[in-house]
């Protein structure tokens, strides 16, 4: 009999825990003759009663396990902790807000079992969201797929079912700065994607602000592409060429028509332009250096306060 481990990152989700557990248990009850299962709830430093709700489930069900962080380390750290600790032949990752339909699990299992896929992921085809967020999300996938050698499917979710071999491959990637969507694609293997229509949260509110999403997108681009560094180089080259052409223009005009450049505004504009380009390129370089700095510290991705 196969074993399935389900990883569930949680941050201030006290309203969703019980609803999520009941919904997933209905799915597992339908397949319990062929599969054992266990839950790994990862409490990512919640400030509400999320941990207490998880402990209540633990008392009622021996299949429930949890890891509680010493503080909020972020969803990437929570997923990493789950992958490092979950046991089973198959490992699944699912959000606790039920925007990922548990009803897809049997179909995901079937693809891995019968068609020898190593991973089955999910793509959200439609979802009610702010038009600005939708535009930025679409733009992000276009940009990162243009810049990176690794293709990341648009609107792909963290919701996926993986074989033990696939999970072990992901765990072997030890970097501190983690962008799971890119890592899942980078390891390769035979992957199937299922599409489903987006649904609203079962309870509570999203904890991702627009700024956090933009920051997360930038991290993904930096982690999986060196194109921004190359762009900075070419922008620097272009800036030099423009500056040289400008100087030639000034010299030639002085030789042919006499007189120097009239006034300082043009000079100030050129200086500001070149200075802006330099700062822009330094900013790109600084992001990469910052990532190297974090990696060189060899700090753990998370600190566990309690585990059962």
UniProtKB/TrEMBL annotation:
Protein name per UniProt: Glycosyltransferase csbB
Give the transmembrane ranges: 234-256, 268-289
Q: Which residues form the Glycosyltransferase 2-like domain?
A: 7-154
InterPro entries given in the database record? Glyco_trans_2-like, Glycosyltransferase_2, Nucleotide-diphossugar_trans
Organism (species):
Apilactobacillus ozensis DSM 23829 = JCM 17196
Q: Which domain of life is it from?
A: Bacteria
Record Pfam families = Glycos_transf_2
An annotated GO cellular component of this protein is:
plasma membrane
Q: Which GO terms describe its molecular function?
A: transferase activity
- Swiss-Prot/TrEMBL keywords: Membrane, Transferase, Transmembrane, Transmembrane helix
